[in-house]
Amino acid sequence: MSGELDPSRRRVLRGVATGVTAGAIAGCAGRGPDAEGNGTAETDQNGTDDGSGGGSEPVSGGELVYSQQVSPIEFDPIVVNDIYSQQVCSQVFEPLYAYDEGTDPVPHLAREEPTIERDGTRYVVELRDGPRFQNGEPVTAEDVRYSLLAPVEEETANAPDVDMIDAVEVVDERTVQIDLQYGYGPFYALGLTRNVVPKSVREEDKDAFNLESPVGSGPFEFVDWTEGEFVDLVKWDDYWGDELPHLDRLRFEPVAESTTRVVSLETGQSDVADGITPQTWQTVQSADNMSLQSEPGISYYYLAFNCNEGPTADPQVREAIDYAVSMDQAVSDFIEPAGERNYGPVPLPVADSWDFSVDEWADIPHDRDVDRAAELLADAGVPEDYTFRIIVPPDDLREQIGISVSNGLNEAGYEAEVRRYDWGTFLDSYSTGNEDDYNMYALGWLGGPDPDSYVYNLFYDGQIGATNGTYYENDDLMDEIVEARRASDIDERRERYESIIPTLLEDRVHLPSYSLRVSIGVRDYVNDFVAHPRSQYNPRVLSDYNNVWIDE
To answer: Which of 99, 149, 198, 540 has its CA 20 to 30 A from that of 525?
Structure first.
């Protein structure tokens, strides 16, 4: 394969993958096909579209109830690192640059695209005249400066998005100058799309800002919440944007069980339901009173190994486990049609847009051979009475991946247990590196449209104990990961990832599993709802291209 991207691929990546031209733990687009792989919305049996209203005039008012898979846990964008909390944050807070229907950043609080200087190490951003926070104060350059520096100063889990910043200078009340320590390719797509918070309000009481009274510049204000039950938002009548939401209220309700989410949708207890699973896919798709919207998702799900302690620290044992399971069969049985088999550690749309050697990655996993697995495990000295421990979060799909691995090890003559934890217990356990806590874990990552969001967070040794629970060691590869994120040239970055990723796959740090589609059930009276390929931005109820309304 050629070492350079063709011109059409370059256009896709302009301004997204390279900041020199004008992410989150999973669970804790466009209206038509296009060259960027944004896909189309699925239709129901009557051939209706994505809920555009069929020519009816929009109706203002009403409440939309959105069923989430997991309860949000906090609301401060500086610290939030799970998609369900981010789904709420995206209604209350706003970024300098928002994603369009796909994954291209477009000016939002910013007046125009950033001015980029000094070989991609300086970004100058001018704010629009008009944005203000819900307390009436204007959004200022100082608020932007604070929002960019706080994650690193407070050592939050999402600090890697901005830890390359050297300094942020307030040029004037509406202009910031951001200097980077080095050219960071994805800075425009990952760093400048982070939400802006009001410095004065947050500094007054960070805990209250996070859990009681978050204040942003978005079209909805925070009202109340009870963890595990609901989050209530109300339209901000003085929203600074060109258009107010049609909806008066927006309510988030966590419903963990997928069948229950669909029943809630069918009965009208909810209006939109996130996370339509393979088991409920056909029910939603064939129903008369709802439609299924499905977009290729920017997600990566995997089984990871503890490379620090226990048998799985031995590469031969990890290879044996690869022989013990057919990931192809597991994805076919338990994930499709809600997701697709993924052979690499980046989402399928990202691999496609970067023109990575996916076919070569697919040749690396072994065909299932339980006898060979048993032979390698015995040769590695794994005791016959050893019990492997696989931990999974409260998610049926990832549990089935764990069970598939467990069954393969059982057939190879070894005991293996799958422990399904609540999110709190799982997050406390998966990154300790202790054999007693886990040999393997099933997890996912929903980052941005750039390989760095996945390779750096999930494999770089500086992220061990934070977003990386593998404890994998390879000094040369770590240097290459750093160089890949610092390079400013697309072709150089791509060449480095084409070296990094096969090494990770051959060493079986992860067994890549699948990428999920963003699959959302929408009642027929909900109009102008458009699913976004990045799950954390759903439900997008107000944007440059849609404004959701209810016609009951």
So the answer is: 99
Q: How far apart are alpha carbons 346 and 304 in whole angstroms?
A: 14
User: Closest Cα partner for 66 from 397, 522, 395?
Assistant: 522
Burial class (CB within 10 angstroms; exposed 0-12, middle 13-18, buried 19+) of 46 = exposed
The amino acid at 242: D
Per DSSP, what are the bridge partners of residue 178?
A: 123, 168
Helices (H) and strands (E) in the chain, counts: 17, 23
Burial 505-538, CB ≥16 within 10 A → b, else e:
bebbbbbbbbbbbbbbbbbbbbbbbbbbbbbbbb
DSSP of 64-111 = EEEEESS------TTT--BHHHHHHHHHH-EESEEE-SSS-EEESSBS
Cα torsion 321, 322, 328, 334: sign:
positive
Q: Beta-carbon neighbour count of residue 263 at 10 Å?
A: 16
Look at residue 8 and tell me whether its pLDDT is greater than 60. no
pTM of the model: 0.80
Residue range 509-514: mean pLDDT, rounded: 98
> With bands split at pLDDT 50, 70 and 90, how would you rate the model's confidence at 255?
very high
Could you tell me which residues are beta bridge partners of residue 549? 527
Residue 281 confidence (pLDDT)? 95
Which region among 134-143, 178-187, 229-238, 539-548 has the lowest average model confidence (pLDDT)? 178-187
DSSP assignment of 294-348, as one string? EEE-S-EEEEEE--SSSGGGSHHHHHHHHHH--HHHHHHHHTTTSEEE--SSS-H
Q: Which of 455, 442, 276 is nearest to 351 (CA)?
A: 455
Angle at 403 between CA 399 and CA 406, to 5 degrees: 140
Report d(CA 65, CA 305) in Å as an integer: 39
Contact 92, 135 (CB under 8 A): no
Angle (CA) 310 313 314, round 5°? 110
Question: Could you give the CA distance from residue 270 to residue 262 in angstroms, rounded to a whole number?
Answer: 9
Confidence tier at 106 by pLDDT (50, 70, 90): very high
CA of residue 477 relative to chain centroid, distance = 24
Question: Residue 502, SS3?
Answer: helix
pLDDT number for residue 18: 27
Can you give the three-state secondary structure of 503-517, one letter per residue?
HHHHCCCEEEEEEEE
Whole-number Å distance between alpha carbons of 298 and 449: 7
Summarised one tens digit per residue, pLDDT across range 23-74 is 566 665 322 222 223 333 333 333 334 444 455 799 999 999 999 999 999 9
Residue 11 has pLDDT above 70, yes or no: no
Angle at 548 (CA atoms; ends 112, 41), nearest 5 degrees = 90
H-only helix segments in 345-474: 348-353, 358-362, 370-379, 396-411, 423-429, 452-459
Q: What is the mean pLDDT of residues 311-337?
A: 98
- For residue range 430-476, list pLDDT tens digits in order: 999 999 999 999 999 988 889 999 999 999 999 999 899 999 999 99
Which pair of tokens denotes residue 99? Answer: 């994603």
Task: List the one residue out of 266, 259, 234 whose CA is nearest residue 247.
Answer: 234
pLDDT above 80: residue 13: no
